[in-house]
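TICKET: design request
STATUS: open
ATTACHED STRUCTURE:
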């Protein structure tokens, strides 16, 4: 694909736009199509400078968390980004904790 053969297509039944990345524990990062910020322990925001045409599907996974019992949750998914909340499960509840994570966002391409 592309005039110089420099683009590759995702093998799918739908015409997807895909953005994927790794957000470091420190939180502030950027790559092609996304940037991230981290202002509060355990909370990260990933933004898409060029918004999706519709709300994307977002999948996240922890990378080397400090504890094996950490949880990760995606919140507020919208066309321009999403928030990730990471917590450590403790004896009586949960405590916010920082950790690196991977993400994949898929949305329809116009």
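STATUS: resolved
RESOLUTION: sequence designed for all positions
ATTACHED SEQUENCE:
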């Amino acid at each position: 694909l592309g005039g110089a053969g420099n683009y590759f297509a995702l093998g799918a039944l739908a015409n997807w736009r895909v953005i994927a990345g790794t957000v470091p524990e420190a939180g502030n990062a950027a790559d092609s199509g996304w940037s991230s910020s981290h202002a509060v322990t355990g909370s990260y925001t990933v933004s898409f400078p060029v918004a999706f045409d519709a709300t994307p599907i977002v999948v996240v996974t922890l990378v080397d968390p400090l504890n094996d019992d950490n949880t990760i949750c995606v919140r507020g998914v919208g066309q321009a980004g999403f928030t990730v909340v990471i917590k450590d499960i403790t004896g009586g509840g949960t405590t916010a904790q920082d950790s690196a994570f991977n993400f994949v966002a898929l949305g329809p391409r116009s």
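CLOSING REMARK: Strands lie at 16-23, 29-31, 34-40, 43-47, 57-63, 70-78, 81-90, 93-96, 100-108. The longest strand covers residues 81-90.
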